[in-house]
Description:
The termini are far apart. The protein has a five-stranded mixed β-sheet with strand order 2-1-3-4-5. It contains seven helices and five strands, in the order H-H-H-E-H-E-H-E-E-H-E-H. By secondary structure, it is an alpha/beta fold.
Amino acid sequence: MDSWLIAVTALLPLTALMLVFQDNPYHALVIRGIIGAVAALLYAILGAADVALTEALVGTMLSIMLYAVAVRSSLVLRLGILASALSTDSLDHLLAAIREAVAPYHLRVELIIYPTFEQLKIALRDREIHALCAEETTQLLTMTRVARLYTILKPHLTSLTELVYYPLPSEEESAA
């Protein structure tokens, strides 16, 4: 066996280990593409052209596109805010702190604007948004229905807002 073939074969477990230990989902997509390309190259070298073509088309290109769509759509924090609070400095500071808190988890913050506080709470209850920010008297209120999000935000937002965890009943509890 040629030494270059051993080197190409050794790339598969090395890139697989890189993939397993990758924190950033976008970097993991790129590494998954590299694994597929190396596998297709190895199959072509070993004479399995049909398997190499299938791996290149399905295992690399199609799966990477599907994974990219899934990762992009799932890493969103939908934050509901009141339309009247858009121009306040305190909300700008709060949004900056939220973005900084969720950045290590590769979440992007998507603002959803609601005209009234009642509509905002209904959106949280109906699972249209993950959290809400509203101004109550003189202090900002941030409420989330996601326990993990509450855990992530708590150390970053205690000085800026009152952070409240608002657990929603599960589907089984609400049906009973």
